[in-house]
Amino acid sequence: MSEFERIETGLGEECGVFGAYDMDGGDVASSVYYGLFALQHRGQESCGIAVTDTYGKRKVLQKKGLGQIKDVFDEEELDKLKGNLGVGHVRYSTAGATRQENAQPLVINYVKGTLAIAHNGNLVNAIELREELAYTGAIFQTTIDSEVIAYLVARERLNVGKAEDAVKNAMKKIKGAYALVVSSPRKMIGARDPFGLKPLCIGKRDNTYFLASESCAIAAVGAEFVRDVLPGEIVSFTKHGVTSDKSMMISPDKQARCIFEYIYFARTDSRIDGVDVYHARLVAGKALAKSYPVEADLVVGVPDSGLVAAMGYSEESGIPYGMAFHKNSYVGRTFIKPRQKDRESSVKIKLNVISEVVKGKRIVMVDDSIVRGTTCANIIKMLKKAGATEVHVRISSPPFLHPCYFGTDVPSNDQLIAHSHTTQEICEMIGADSLGYMEVSKLKDMVGDMGFCDACFTGNYPMEVPDGDISMAFEEL
Q: What digits encode the pLDDT tens for the residues 368-383?
C-alpha cells in the first residue's frame, strides 16, 4: 500500500478556472491567486497560474504544482509571475491521474505564439479526438482531455485570423462539458459549452476584467459581477474592449446546467445563471421537510453543503436548527493516512460531533448526497455514539443511479449504493431510523425555469454518452 492514499469523504469536486486581464498593464498574478483561493473547494489536487505581458515580449511565465494554492505559491513565487494577462486553475482529477504534468493551465508554444488554457469539465469524445490527433503527429504530454482541446485550438488557429475563431472551430469538434479560459499573446478568451453544463462568469474591477467558475471568486478580488457567460457563448477581452460570439448557442430548451452545482459543488455565496446557491439549497431543505416530515428535537446539517438545506428543513418543519459538527478546515481531499491498525476513521479526522448538542435528542440529519454509503453510515454512528437517540437522514439530492460523464466524480453503477438497493435497504445499511431523498420532480423548484442536467439521477443525458468509464480509458493511454 502506498504511504499516501486518498481518503474518500464524499463526491469529487470538479475544477475551477480563473482569468484576469489588466488593460492598463498591471501585474495580475496576485489577483489570480486570490481568485483561485476562493475556488479551492472545486479542486485541491493541483493548481497553477500562467501569465503573459501583452505589452512586452509576450513570454508566458508559469508555475504549477500538486497540492493546494497555499502549498504551491508564496509571495516570492507570485512576484516572479510578471504579466497583465493571467490564467489560473485548481484541479480535482476526473479524467487523468493526479500527476504533476496533468496540472493546469496547459501552455502550448506553436507557430502563432503561445496559448495557455484552463479547462473545467470532461469531453465525451476525448478518446477518439486524441487518437485522431495522434495519427496526424500530435505528441501528448498528459493524460487529460484538456490537452486535446489545447491542441485543437492551436491547430485551428493556423487556419483563421483570430484566436476566438480558433476556439469556436474547436468547439465544433468537441462534445461534452467545458468552461474554458484561454490566453493568447494579446487577448483573454472565455468559452462555455452550449449546454451550459459548466458555469463561467465575468467580473470587472477598474480596467481589469475577470473570468471565473463562480461569482464568489469575482467578489474575492474586489471586482463587480458583470454577468454569466451564456451557454455556447465565446467572449473575448483585448485592449480594445470586450466582444461576444453567440453563434454556437443552442435553444434554451436544450440547455442543461449541472444541477449538482446548486446542490453541492458551488460555494454557498455564489450566484450561477441568476440563481443564488444559498436560495436553491434553502428551497431543497424546505421541500424535504414537506415530503418527509418526522417528529424530532433538532435539525442539523453535514458541513458544508448540507447546512443551508438543514436550515430550510428547520424553517419549514418548525424543528429547531442546531450545529452538531465541528469541521476541521485544514483537511483536504487527500492527506496522509496513518499506517497503524487502529487508525482513526477518515470521517473523524474531518468531522467531530459536538456531544452536548445531540445528547438525548432525536436528530434530523441533512446531507447533500449518498454515494457509496460509507461516509453517511460513519456519521450516523458518531451521532448515536454521542448520545443521539434517533437519526433521521434527509438527502437534498435524489438517489444516484447513473454515472456522470461531464466532470463530476460520480462513480460507476456498481459503486453507487442506490443502484442496487432500495431506499429502505439503504436506510438499514447506514443505520438510520428513517431516510428520505429529494424527489426528482422537486429539483426544478430549486432553479426555476432554466434547463438543467439531472442525468446522474434519471439517466436522461443531454447528449450521447460513451460506454464505460472515460477516466479509466485515459489511464490506459
A: 999 888 889 999 999 9
